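Risk mitigation, structural track. In case the binding assays with pyridoxal-5'-phosphate fail to produce interpretable data, a predicted complex structure has been prepared as a fallback.
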Amino acid sequence: MIEWENLKKTNQPFFEEYRTRFAEILDRGWFILGRNVIDFEKEFAQYIGSKYCIGVASGLDALILSLKAFGFKPGCEIIVPANTYIATIISVLQNGLQPVLVEPGIGTYNIDPDRIEEKITSKTVAIIAVHLYGKACNMGKIMRIAKDYHLKIIEDCSQSHGARYQEKTTGTFGDAAAFSFYPTKSLGALGDGGAIITDDPNFAEKIRILGNYGSPRKHYFELVGFNSRLDEIQAGFLQIKLKKLDKINEHKRTLARLYLNNLNDKFISPMVEEGYFDVYHIFAIRHAGRDKLKEYLKDNGIMTEIHYPFPPHRQRVLQGLLPAQNLPISEEIHNTILSLPCAFFHTEEDIMKVIETMNKFPSYGF
Ligand SMILES: *Cc1c(COP(=O)(O)O)cnc(C)c1O
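Fallback model:
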């Protein structure tokens, strides 16, 4: 059987170093805001190419705290892609702000920059650019719009650790960037974790205070804060994995290239554009007979996933919170998308087997 992901196998190459690090942390007996977090924050900021990194408890928290730190007034509008993991949109609602959904490009699956301006109103204050599946958004166009309309940019880099646009790493374009270290992400921890990246020292300080009960120093409280911190154990594991992130990304890119070069063109492969360095957090294809294809692959011992089966605007949580939505491109993507095996533990042979099996998929008139 070819699994879609196996977190034991994907992490196996790091087990020895993880065990040593875990033993060191136990020995030291310091579990919150210690040496590992400080070092990881420094190393991750450096890896991304930014000045500050603040570890938090999850990717969702990274988004929530970023929006909070800007101090937007309730009711302000935030532009978000209609095609994203719902956490992006939840972070807006958690701040009492109004999400405004913008259709993705049918080829890139990312927010369509040419459809942003028509959604900007006098209440718009920011755009959340989500680099979905490990492919950067068109940050050239998005940054131009942000400048013209004086909007803040928050990058949701939960799926794009190390992805680049025009040689610049995702997370360095906007005013703030949110990362998730959920175990399945390319830089995945062994539990929950997240981080915010920024070049602004005041913003960084505010995030740090907000994530620590609103406390700038012990026993003093200045803001209504949260408890959202990356812990020492996860930071220790992440330090080890970060050193291999380029290798992880290269391996996934190699597997992706096999798909791109060998999959029959009855499947719509992800777009490859000049100037983009895609890291394939998820390798997703589209096919009109997606559900049948998923069943067929399963019958042949190949497991797949759907990211995501239902678009956010169809979820119950958003009913009544948005005006009537007409998002045919987003719906088309959700109805036809399928995530193929493309994990760090997969071999080139695994992927060739998936390709061979897929290319024999009967067309059923699709
Ligand atoms: C995973 C993910 C999140 C949330 O991250 P968590 O660490 O699970 O809270 C947010 N946005 C996107 C695009 C994601 O893929």
